[in-house]
UniProtKB/TrEMBL annotation:
CDD domains: Atg16_CCD, WD40
GO biological process: autophagosome assembly; protein transport
Domain called Autophagy-related protein: residue spans: 17-147
Highest rank taxon of the organism: Eukaryota
WD repeat placement: 272-305, 316-357, 358-399, 496-525
Protein name listed in UniProt: Protein Atg16l2
InterPro entries, per database record: ATG16, Autophagy-rel_prot_16_dom, WD40/YVTN_repeat-like_dom_sf, WD40_PAC1, WD40_repeat_CS, WD40_repeat_dom_sf, WD40_rpt
Gene from which this protein is expressed: ATG16L2
Compartments, record wording: Cytoplasm, Cytosol
Parts forming coiled coils: 51-161
GO cellular component, one term: Atg12-Atg5-Atg16 complex
UniProt record similarity statement: Belongs to the WD repeat ATG16 family.
């Protein structure tokens, strides 16, 4: 402001000293100066505005710079962390490489060791097969030699007795009137006849050689002839029966009582993870309170049914392979199991280790059942044979070639029934060598169940049906189907109820299906604890409980 006053003062002095001719130029300068001043003001205003804008922009840039610097610091920290992690991972990679190298060396060593062990195992298996074949051949030779010795002994005995009879018939006996003399003569002849299993017809010789001083001699001779005929007839009858004089008749188990009415199960009472892997077989004992289950873990567990609960009774060990079938003998004191180890094994209840091994099959044994006669059993195998066994000697008494994989067998009084992969059920007379009948069904046969009266047969097959066969007319009487029912495997087992009123089977979806045998209708469907396919079911002889087992290790008690 002061500078401006000074300029105005100077201008006034100059104006006062100037000539009148210079006045327009000064005015012009003044105007020009004012214009320039105004321009400077505008320029200053614009510059001030720009300074403000630049200051704002500078502040924003400084903020952004600070943010970028903070991000840069964070990234630098992250980079340092990643570098450290990378170094650790590189170290881990090196460690893993070292471990892999060590494990590779160990693997190569194990592989070489396994190769040696496999070669040794193959040698042992070949030796075992050779030993088994030798054992079977030796047993067969021993049985043949025993039969030959018995036959020779019997022939010698018959020849000796025949000679005694001839001597007795040729002997001259005097008969007096005294009762003592007659009694002694008859006693002597009676003792001689008691030794005779097969005499010759000697009536004429006896009549010629005997002296008859009295009329009673004729009666005595007729009595002797009659006794000889009786003994000979008895011997002929024994020979027709296939037994020797001293042979004992076949011993049979006592008949198991059957319930009058079966109770349908409604709910699961007990659920157990009973085995270490898949459970394939289940069977009730004849007293309905003892239960056996067998699985792929090569164990058989015996359970007591106590108050709608399953309690562990015993574990049977020593099976050579996965258990495919279990069965109690009618007395309930023995357990027979079929295994994948080409054999069946026998246990006594109360003894943990196997009592006998029935070897002779060349493939998996899929079924093993007791017969109604003591010390006899039947097995079926995938080697296309069914074998009958003498359990007293652990000896195969008969081998039947059945033409197809056998998945199950059942036994009647004088009949063996087998179910096969070729969709057929075959009937074999246990007293004859040939198949007596074949009934075709649709689908591979997975199981057979024979009713207690031996008049009806229940079959389960892979066409998802159950069939009831009337054995009196050898015809399929009923076919059971249901929506949702699917047969889960080639070893799925279905059973009759004890009174043959119902048929029971487990399905691939874990449900149990129960049909009424008389009407053919689905009576009940039980869905519960099973989450995998049900392999087998069992119905106790009292008709009160049902047990099912599945591929997921479960054993379920239904009531």
């Amino acid at each position: 402001m002061r500078t401006r006053n000074r300029l105005e003062f100077r201008v006034g002095r100059e104006e006062s000293g100037l000539d009148s001719d210079q006045v327009p130029s000064l005015a012009t300068l003044r105007v020009k100066w004012q214009e320039e001043e105004e321009g400077l003001r505008l320029v200053c205003g614009e510059m001030a505005y720009q300074v403000v804008e630049k200051s704002v922009a500078l502040g924003a840039l400084e903020s952004e710079l600070q943010e970028l610097q903070s991000r840069l610091a964070a990234l630098e920290v992250r980079v340092a962390q990643l570098r450290e992690a990378r170094a650790q991972q590189a170290q881990q990679v090196e460690d893993r490489r070292a471990q892999n190298a060590v494990q590779r060396e160990a693997y190569e060593a194990l592989r070489a060791h396994v190769g040696l062990r496999e070669a040794a195992l193959r040698r042992l298996q070949e030796e075992a097969r050779d030993l088994l074949e030798r054992l079977v051949q030796r047993k067969a030779r021993a049985a043949a030699e025993r039969n030959l010795r018995n036959e020779r002994r019997e022939r010698a005995k018959q020849a000796r007795v025949s000679q005694e009879l001839k001597k007795a018939a040729k002997r001259i006996v005097s008969i007096s009137e005294g009762p003592d003399t007659l009694g002694d003569g008859m006693r002597e002849r009676t003792e001689t006849l008691a030794l005779a299993p097969e005499p010759e017809p000697l009536e004429n010789e006896a009549c010629e050689k005997w002296k008859r001083p009295f009329r009673s001699a004729s009666a005595t001779s007729l009595t002797l002839s009659h006794c000889v005929d009786v003994v000979k007839g008895l011997l002929d009858f024994k020979k027709r029966r296939g037994h020797s004089i001293g042979g004992a008749p076949e011993q049979r188990y006592q008949i198991i009582p059957v319930c009058v009415a079966t109770r349908l199960p409604t709910q699961a009472q007990d659920v157990l993870d009973a085995h270490l892997s898949e459970v394939n077989a289940v069977r009730f004992g004849p007293n309905s309170s003892l239960l056996a289950t067998g699985g792929a873990d090569r164990l058989i567990h015996l359970w007591n049914v106590v108050g709608s609960r399953l309690e562990v009774n015993q574990t049977l060990e020593g099976a050579g392979g996965s258990i495919t079938s279990v069965d109690f003998d009618p007395s309930g004191y023995q357990v027979l199991a079929a295994t994948y180890n080409q054999a069946a094994q026998l246990w006594k209840v109360g003894e943990a280790q196997s009592k006998e091994t029935l070897s002779g099959h060349k493939d998996k044994v899929t079924a093993a059942k007791f017969k109604l006669t003591r010390h006899q059993a039947v097995t079926g195998s995938r080697d296309r044979t069914v074998k009958e066994w003498d359990l007293g000697r652990a000896y195969c008494s008969r081998t039947i070639n059945v033409l197809s994989y056998c998945n199950d067998v059942v036994c009647g009084d004088h009949i063996i029934i087998s179910g096969h992969n070729d969709q057929k059920i075959r009937f074999w007379d246990s007293r004859g060598p040939h198949c007596t009948q074949v009934i075709p069904v649709q689908g591979r046969v997975t199981s057979l169940s024979l009713s207690h009266d031996q008049l009806h047969l229940l079959s389960c097959s892979r066409d998802n049906t159950l069939k009831v066969i009337d054995l009196r007319v050898s015809n399929i009487r009923q076919v059971f189907r249901a929506d949702g029912f699917k047969c889960g495997s080639d070893w799925t087992k279905a059973v009759f109820s004890p009174d043959r009123s119902y048929a029971l089977a487990g399905s691939c979806d874990g449900a149990l299906y129960i049909w009424d045998v008389d009407t053919g209708k689905l009576e009940s469907r039980l869905q519960g604890p099973h989450c995998t396919a049900v392999n087998a079911v069992a119905w106790c002889y009292s008709g009160s409980y049902v047990v099912s087992v599945d591929q997921g290790r479960k054993v379920v008690l239904w009531h």
